[in-house]
Write a structure and sequence with these properties.
- The structure is a single chain.
- By secondary structure, the protein is an all-alpha fold.
- It is built from 6 helices and no strands.
- The N terminus is likely disordered.
């Protein structure tokens, strides 16, 4: 916008410099009076009204250009000072920011949230039932009491996440990450598919104690996907 203003204003003609004298050259009294070759100043130079309009337009353009530049600078400062405003969650959840936010109790059920970024967010009692969360990141997020039943969680990142007292029944976690201190204590995993999910021995041992059911989508038994003995 500022560039357009500058281009427009640069095309405005500037007021011409007045000439010092418009008087026709003196002629001899003995010679007949000739029509002066210099045309009337009115035919060359704008009237005072036109000059005044040009001045107003120049002032207006200068004001608009300054306002546009200030607006651009202000926007840059805002986004630089608060990165959350510039970061839109890394996924298709509208313009909503989902990273590092308190989204407790929010309803995301049935939504398509492929590769959505929920890193470090508080998602207590959030509803993700039947949601498509393929490749979504829940790194270091708090999912205590969240409903993730029937969700597509293939390739999702649960590293360092608190997935305690949550509902993972019939969820497909194939290839998901659960490294670090990811906790599944008190979570319902009936029918969940943990195929190719890297787990610590203590995590696997705990999950095998409560594992049961068959995933309705993959047809895999939960205990088999956990390599339970």
């Amino acid at each position: 916008m500022a560039v357009l203003n500058v281009c427009f204003c640069s095309k405005l003609p500037s007021s011409p410099n007045p000439i010092k004298s418009l008087s026709p050259p003196k002629t001899s009294l003995s010679q007949p009076q000739l029509q002066p070759l210099i045309p009337s100043p009115r035919s060359i130079y704008p009237t005072p009204q036109v000059t005044q309009i040009g001045s107003h337009l120049s002032y207006l353009c200068e004001s608009i250009s300054k306002a546009s530049v200030l607006a651009l600078i202000s926007a840059s400062i805002v986004f630089a000072s608060d990165p959350a405003l510039a970061f839109k969650g890394g996924g298709p959840y509208g313009a909503g920011v989902t990273r590092g936010q308190d989204l407790s109790g929010k309803d995301f059920s049935g939504k398509t949230l492929i590769k959505q970024d929920f890193k470090t967010s508080i998602l207590r009692q959030a509803n993700f039932k039947g949601a498509n969360l393929l490749g979504a990141s829940f790194f270091d997020a708090d999912l205590t009491g969240a409903d993730l039943s029937d969700a597509d969680l293939r390739g999702a990142d649960f590293s360092l996440a608190q997935v305690t007292k949550a509902n993972l029944s019939n969820a497909n976690l194939e290839g998901a990450l659960a490294t670090g201190n990811t906790s599944f204590k008190g979570t319902n995993i009936t029918g969940a598919d943990f195929t190719d999910v890297p787990l610590r021995d203590d995590q696997r041992e705990y999950l095998c104690k409560i594992a049961d059911g068959v995933n309705p989508v993959t047809g895999n038994e939960t205990r088999e996907t956990l390599f339970c003995k």
